[in-house]
Design brief:
- With about 250 residues, the protein is α/β, with parallel strands linked by helices.
- Helix content is about 35%, strand content about 25%.
- The chain is elongated and about 55 Å long.
- It has two domains: about 90 residues, Udp-n-acetylmuramoylalanyl-d-glutamate--2,6- Diaminopimelate Ligase, Chain: A, domain 1; about 120 residues, NIF3 (NGG1p interacting factor 3)-like (Udp-n-acetylmuramoylalanyl-d-glutamate--2,6- Diaminopimelate Ligase, Chain: A, domain 1, 3-Layer(aba) Sandwich), CATH 3.40.1390.
- The mean pLDDT is about 95.
- Helix 2 packs parallel to helix 3 and helix 5 packs across helix 10.
């Protein structure tokens, strides 16, 4: 299909202008005029670029792009990444916060559905705009069993921080590094938070509050939106898509 038409559709569908975001969302490296093969990867890195080019993609869509609003010289590793795309005639499109927040294909909406939540409402503020979701389980569920339910979709969690007898009823969801929304989750009545990763400094703040946390992995929790977006493009335009899996274990 016509590349300009595809990029306009992505920009509008993902509402990339709606969110304040350090990521330069949208087309970051020019693609060929016609696009029939679209690859997807969580991270803009040399490995994902090489695999996209080997698969003969005309466009690679990523969650973590190459550019984050600071100037980068085209030298060293950054030059090698960009050269791989240009020589391989493959463009690059980034969707960071817009892909977290999207109500249909977003990471958080997808995770919430995988968890079996109902009564979903937007939650989790990022610079004035909600990007996560909060909802209820139809029946109370042990946190360990909720983690097992998610694991069927995204793999085993990196960590569960919860009492052995903890029960999940109202669950907040924010992929990636959503542990920073801990207080906001409690204020919204959540007893459980599903997110990606944590750090040492957040261990005790979480332990001292009556909130269970399932850390599904930063990478794992941010694969689901890309896969859903791939399905959308296949259905909407008949494009051939391919997900490049490069797990970091984090």
């Amino acid at each position: 299909m016509n590349a300009e038409h595809l990029i306009r559709h992505l920009n509008a569908f993902l509402a990339i202008d709606r969110y304040a975001d350090r990521s330069n969302n949208g087309l970051q490296v020019q693609c060929p005029p016609e696009v029939t093969r679209v690859a997807f990867a969580v991270d803009a890195c040399l490995a994902s670029f090489e695999r996209a080019v080997a698969w003969k993609a005309q466009l690679l869509i990523v969650h973590h792009g190459l550019f984050w609003s600071e100037p980068l010289l085209l030298t060293g590793a950054h030059f090698e990444r960009v050269r791989t795309l240009i020589c391989g005639e493959c463009g690059l499109y980034a969707a960071h916060i817009p892909l977290d927040a999207h109500p249909e294909v977003g990471n958080n909406a997808q995770l919430a559905r995988m968890a079996g939540l109902t009564n979903l409402t937007p939650w989790g503020m990022h610079k004035g705009t909600p990007i996560g979701y909060i909802g209820d389980l139809p029946e109370p569920l042990p946190v360990a069993q909720l983690a097992e339910r998610l694991a069927k979709h995204i793999g085993a969690p990196n960590r569960i921080q919860a009492a052995p007898e903890a029960i999940a009823r109202r669950v907040a969801v924010c992929s990636g590094f959503g542990i920073t929304l801990l207080e906001e989750a409690l204020a919204a009545g959540a007893d459980t938070l599903i997110t990606g990763e944590t750090s040492h400094m957040w261990f005790h703040p979480a332990a001292e509050r009556r909130l269970s946390v399932i850390f599904g992995g930063h990478y794992n929790t941010e694969t689901v939106g890309l896969k859903a977006l791939a399905e959308h493009l296949e259905a909407q335009f008949g494009l051939t898509t391919h997900f490049i899996d490069l797990p970091t274990g984090l």
